[in-house]
Every structure is written in C-alpha cells, then in structure tokens.
Design goal:
Elements lengths: L1 H18 L8 E4 L19 E6 L2 E10 L3 E10 L5 E10 L2 E2 L6 E3 L4 E9 H6 L7 E10 L5 E4 L3 E4 L15 E6 L2 E10 L5 E11 L5 E10 L2 E2 L6 E3 L4 E9 H6 L7 E10 L5 E4 L3 E4 L1
Parallel strand pairs: 1-21
Antiparallel strand pairs: 2-3, 3-4, 4-8, 5-6, 5-7, 5-9, 9-10, 9-11, 12-13, 13-14, 14-18, 15-16, 15-17, 15-19, 19-20, 19-21
Length: 291
C-alpha cells in the first residue's frame, strides 16, 4: 500500500512538471503581443492501421485503433506479456503533427497476462497546441520491471500514420516576441495569463522550435519578476525537428509574498541541455521581457 502511495505521488509530480511543457540570448529586451489568423481543414473521422509496434523479450505491443471523444483522443493498445516478469509500459517523447504533446498512459501487465488500454491525449492539450486534425503521432515506449522500476528496454521513436486528414495543414502559432534565435534554438514569448483560482498565479506562454539536430531539455534559471527572485515551474523536452508550446508557471503564493499584483517584467536565462546526459549546450545571457 505504501508503495502505491509513493507511485501516485511521483506520478502527480511528474504530471505537474510535464504540464509546463509547449534573436540571440545576449541581454535581450522584449515586449509581448498576440495575434493569429489561420485556416485549417480537419476531419473528425480518423483511423489507424492495426499493427504490431514492438515485439521483444517476450513482450508484444499492438496498435488496435484510434478513437475520438468530446474530451480526448485515444490510441487503443493491446499489451501481451509472455515474459517471466511483471512489467509496466509507459510512452514518452510523444508528438502529434510535429508538436510535443503530453499523453496520459501507464499500464502494468503481470507475467503471462494481457492488457487492453489507451494512450490518451486530452483535447485541451491539442487545442492549446493549435491541433485541429491529427495526421501523425509518434512516441517512444519505456518498458520496466513493475517491482523496482528497472528498465527492461526503451524503443526508438515509433511513427503512426493517421488516416482521414490527408488534406489537413498544420499551422504553428509563433506570434509574439522572439527572445532567442541561435544555434537551432528559437523561443518566442507569447503572452501571460492570470488565474486567481489557481495555485499558479500567472503563466508565461512560450513557443519553441528545435532545429539543432539534438534532442534537448530546456530549463529557466535565475528568474526574477519585477526585480524579485522567484522559483517558477518550467521544464520542457523538445526533440530535434519538433516544436513545443510550453508555460513558465509562477506560484501565486510567491507572487503574493513579494507584493506582486501585476507582472511588469520577467528576467531569466535559459539553460538548454542534451536530453540524454544533461550536459549544457547553451546557457543564455539574461533575457528581459516587458509587459
């Protein structure tokens, strides 16, 4: 029972971290704005071809179908575990139409058992990324021992073509102020939102492009709001060639403690690291964003 509680707490923390994800970095100043006007053609009638995604070490994962509902889009998956170990399967590094999109999925399968489950993409996350039609989905699978979390294997990126949206053209909302553009990394500050009912007092929305040829993780360092040092939540993985919409989230209690009722400026540096190994690729000079 205690272990189940620990796993639940870890999952909640991990989901909070993931939710913070979608010019030179030398002493840049910026003021934000926001406009967007695009046309898209999307179909609600979509399908996928049934196929085996991975068969290895007595473990088979089969894609069965795709289903849309008012709240989510789900990939239906069958997992067959003929190994001698109880396993857990978790997808990560998921993308839709070239955009990093978080998923909800983790399933345990006992030795000699099968499980039908779904990789779920919330429609709210698709809407936030400007995805109205799904043309392709990709992800990796992490398969590990349920008891001690030791990895059995990780797959390469699995590509899934979605039928029904051949004419759909994905657009990317990069309207805002470009605060970084160098070495294949581009970041645009879009807007800042306020929600008095949320633990997050404010969120700064970012658009990120990675054409560096490297899979990366981006952090925000030395962050201040109106001159006061703060510790926001921000962590964003962006695979090479992909885009992301992400948020830097500021705790309401921290803003209140510093008497900040309106954000006038944010100063920060971005620490861009290799996703594997975590070695820093680029640490920008301070960037100032004015509102």
């Amino acid at each position: 029972m205690k272990k189940s509680v620990y796993i639940l707490i870890a999952a909640l923390i991990f989901s909070l971290i993931l939710s913070s994800c979608s010019a030179s970095g030398d002493d840049k100043e910026a003021t934000t704005n926001n406009t967007n006007d695009t046309e898209k053609t999307a179909s609600n009638s979509i399908s996928v071809d049934e196929k085996v995604l991975i068969e290895r070490d007595g473990i088979r994962v089969t894609l069965k179908s795709i289903e849309k509902s008012y709240s989510a889009t789900e990939l239906k998956i069958l997992i067959e575990n003929d190994s001698e170990t109880d396993i857990t399967v978790r997808p990560y590094d998921s993308t839709i139409n070239g955009i990093m999109v978080d998923n909800m999925y983790s399933v345990q399968v006992g030795s000699g058992k099968k499980a039908n489950d779904s990789i779920t993409f919330m429609n709210s996350a698709l809407k936030a990324a400007g995805i109205e039609g799904i043309k392709d989905i990709s992800f990796k699978l992490n398969v590990y021992v349920s008891e001690d979390w030791e990895t059995i294997f990780d797959t390469e990126q699995i590509e899934i073509a979605v039928n029904g949206n051949a004419d759909y053209v994905q657009t990317f909302d990069d309207v805002g102020v470009e605060i970084l553009n160098r070495d294949g990394f581009r970041i645009v500050a879009k807007d800042i939102s306020y929600d008095e009912s949320s633990a997050w007092g404010s969120e700064l929305s970012l658009y990120i492009e990675n054409t560096s040829g490297e899979d990366i993780t981006i952090y925000a360092e030395n962050v201040s709001v109106n001159g006061f040092m703060v510790s926001p939540m921000f962590y964003c993985d962006v695979l090479s060639g992909m885009k992301a919409y992400a948020q830097i989230s500021f705790w309401k209690t921290e803003l209140d403690e510093n008497g900040i009722t309106e954000i006038e400026n944010i100063e920060l540096s971005f620490d861009i690291r290799y996703k594997v190994g975590w070695e820093t690729i680029l640490l920008t000079n301070p960037i100032i964003i004015y509102f």
